[in-house]
Amino acid sequence: VALCNVVSASPAKAATAVVLQAEKELKPWIAKDDLGQKMWRINQRIVKVIVELMRNHETPESLVILASASDVLLRATDGMLVDGEACTLPQLELLEATARAVQPVLEWGESGVMVADGLSNLLKCRLPATVRCVSHPSAHVRALSRSVLGAMLHAGSSINSDRKITLPAMNGSAPPYECTNVSNTDWQADIEKCLTWEAHSRLATGLPIQFVDNAAKELGCTISIEAS
User: Fold this and answer.
1) DSSP bridge pairs for 31
2) 3-state secondary structure 89-153
3) How many whole angstroms separate alpha carbon 210 and alpha carbon 110?
């Protein structure tokens, strides 16, 4: 609760503090489950605070700070399929918040393009793991992973529509400035490729693809399954 209050009161300061803390503490550690087996764990508390900061679109400074800390965001979403539902859900929430932040960031104009590019790079990096989550044993994880993929599609359409940013000509003589830093990813095609790969992978090991098929239909994607 105290951390949430800090995030609400001063998002920029909170973002700086979280990044500094995350650089020290956001790393996997080994814990033991009820059967005494070693488990890979991630610091859920820090991930959840980053999610709250990422959801705050009213303070550009906090988003800039987080987007600039690409290593922290990568570590916060590392090992999504290694740990259980308790850790996977916050990581998916972070990816969803990241995808939903793209469009508001692009509304800043030129200054938001590089930030959006950094956010989209994180999403692209974690796309395969997100797709694998659509077959997770947990219904909550499956539902959230589909929501993340939908947010990625929406973010991709926002990026593509804002790829060309024209600034006013100086003294009427300078040509319009076209920004080319934003990722030119075809999210629809990439998601379809990952869904197809996941379906083939599961079929090859004798596992059902019902959840993959359902996700593809919900997202309006096509998966290609060739008969063997």
Assistant:
1) 39
2) HHHHHHHHHHHHHHHHHHCCCHHHHHHHHHHHHHHHHHHHHHHHHHHCCCHHHHHHHHHHHHHHH
3) 43
Q: Which of 27-31, 118-122, 201-205 has the lowest mean pLDDT?
A: 27-31
Distance CA 98, CA 120 (A): 8
Structure-token pair, residue 93: 């929430």
Task: List 40's β-bridge partners, or say none.
Answer: 30
Please say whether the beta carbons of 79 and 34 come within 8 A.
no
Query: What are the backbone angles phi and psi of residue 225, rounded to the nearest 5°?
Result: -115, 110
Give the bridge partners for 39, in sequence order.
31
DSSP string, the chain: -HHHHHHHH-HHHHHHHHHHHHHHH-S-EEEE-TTS-EEEE--HHHHHHHHHHHH-TT-HHHHHHHHH-HHHHHHHTTTTTTS-HHHHHHHHHHHHHHHHHHHHHHTTTHHHHHHHHHHHHHHHHHHHHHHHGGG-S-HHHHHHHHHHHHHHHHHHHHHHHTS--PPPPGGGTSPPP----S----HHHHHHHHHHHHHHHHHHTT---HHHHHHHHHHT--------
For the full predicted model, state whether its pTM sits above 0.85: no
Q: For residue range 140-180, what is the model confidence (pLDDT) as tens digits?
A: 999 999 999 999 999 877 766 654 443 333 333 333 333 33
For helices 210-219 and 187-204, give the axis angle rounded to 10 degrees: 170
